[in-house]
Amino acid sequence: MEDPKIQLVEYQGNQYHVVKEGLAKILNPPAQEAASKGTKKDLKDDDQMQSVFYNPIQQFNRDLSVLAIRAHGEHIIDLKKQKAAQKLKRQAGNGEKKRKREDDQTENPRPAPNAEHKENTETNDQPVSAAPVDQEPQSEARLEQPAPSFTVLDALSATGLRALRYASELPFVTKVVANDLSESAIKSMKKNIDYNNLKTIKPNLADARVYMYGLDNASKFDVIDLDPYGTAAPFMDAAVQAAKDGGLLCVTCTDAGVWASTGYSEKSFSLYGGIPIKGLHSHEGGLRLILNAIAMSAAKYGMAIEPLLSLSIDFYARVFVRVYRSPAQVKFTAGNTMLVYNCDVGCGAWTTQFIGCNKSKTDRKGNPIYNHTLSQGPTAGPHCEHCGTKTHLAGPMWGGPLHNPQFIQKILDMLPGADPETYQTCARIEGMLTTALEEDLDLTPSQFESSTPKRPVPSTKHHHDPAYPAIIPRMDVAAQEKYPFYFSISALAKVLHTTTPPIDDFRGALSHLGYRSTRSHTKPNSIRTDAPWEVIWEVMREWVRQWSPIKETSLKPGTAGAAIMGKSRENLRKLSDEDQWLSLLKKDLMSAVEAGRDISDLVTKVEAALYRSGSRTSWKSAPASAEKSSDADPQPVPEKAPAQPFKRPHPSTLEVVFDDALGREVSAVHTKKRLVRYQLNPRANWGPLNRAGR
Length: 694
Known about the structure:
Catalytic activity: guanosine(26) in tRNA + 2 S-adenosyl-L-methionine = N(2)-dimethylguanosine(26) in tRNA + 2 S-adenosyl-L-homocysteine + 2 H(+)
Structural class: alpha+beta
GO cellular component, one term: nucleus
Shape: globular
Distance between the termini: 30 Å
Number of helices: 23
GO molecular function: tRNA (guanine(26)-N2)-dimethyltransferase activity; tRNA binding
Organism: Penicillium vulpinum
Number of strands: 18
Family: Belongs to the class I-like SAM-binding methyltransferase superfamily. Trm1 family.
């Protein structure tokens, strides 16, 4: 990203550095300029106590926010036009029916009691016959509706840079309120507004929560931007109440050390109502914690949320969420909230558990009817079924989709026409949004489907009107994320103490088995797939066997890697069919006795060994029952036999082929264009700046 052009000017008797970003310009005092460019150890006392600050690293955030609000604003304007047209159509239909009734009365008049009444009737008939001609220009005049209002609240505005950009770069914005609690920030903001000669911005000195709580229905906003220093949790409750029905919340949380780390799990629970996940997928877990906090804040007031775009960027999270006033949709919140059983200190596998259950059935017209019931649990035991290590609980967190594909595609369609001088981070926006769009596995074809990627299609419940192309249909309110989170191949290789497979080879192996895979925008070399964990670990075991053998002494008994490699095909072949499971159990028990430090530790290891033994016998029972049924006498089969549940084959029977060409084909299925998907540090000593002084 290029540094903004800076020039020294004199304004109102003082000298300032003018920083231009987008179409907006802000006046930076010299001390503030030093704070924006230096590191903490290089700053002087005057620089440390800056009144407000400018962080150029957040330009990507602001560029993306302008484009996202533009997409949402065009959606709102088209939606208002559609409603106005439908209202006029209904009124025209009612007027036509009224004129038809009047014409019928004219053709068949009621018998008048005297001639005077008859004469009045004939006189009144004349303008009635000319009414359609007179009303035609009136209908044309009514079609010319004034421009609909579109209001934005920058709740924590500081210098007012976001408000300046929204007012100058969004032509349909009618009012922007730039609020801040600091008097010095308001003073600087007014100076910047006058310097940019913008009349649609209204500075406001108040606590953001008090201001948003005090709004009436007529004063609510179409867009509310929360960009605090740290967490946005204290402002979420007020923001959902200050947004209009169908409004947009743009929320930034820079406290990644809380929502993406287990070092402060109690702090995360107090702020976001959930425990974070430990592991490389912690940033996606943090996004889901933030979304769940917004959903719970909205649900208390009969409002439901729809995440449009949820991104983990550098050191912060940025989510764009639509809120709707719909008590009926609030009932789906429990079914979209999940817990996670995470094997964080073992192999890294996870299992999800939704708190509620949204069961659907269709009525006579084919429309879905939902019944909200309790969810059965648990979906996982206290020990990991793959390595026997203890699992830890994370959540509750948002279990629905993170993005609306239609919204992302709308922003991507804007980028070719965006001015690169105004939006200097377009390359990174395109790369990150394309990667976020590819995260939807339903848009990714498998090996057995067409190689053409599927375009995001509107929900069948909300039909797309071609007369209003900017309208972004809602996602299915009952949609759940079937395959949340991602994993890193290097982390899997670390568990087995082997070399890391190339990502194309690994994705080619998954595709050869019929599973889909894609990237995650949060981490490079990450994989999101619909393959179950037993298949993922079988692919890794085959990588060790075929390409990267390891020494038997490299994995200590009782570790996660030893337990996973104990299920390898070679170990299973060494044992006879009669005693293989018993021998594995004996081996695990002996390892537990040797490695146990005390009684409690020994009990834990024995329990893990017994648990692994139970999972092995469950794998064995399926082929044994099938063999028994084949040897038995054939039984007459009824004409309509009930459908048998699908039984996944044992992982050791899978043919794993590491096809790098197929992996490259899978990677290029969405786009062959070289994109900036994961940008390195934009500049030296980058990161969050110091909090502004008051």
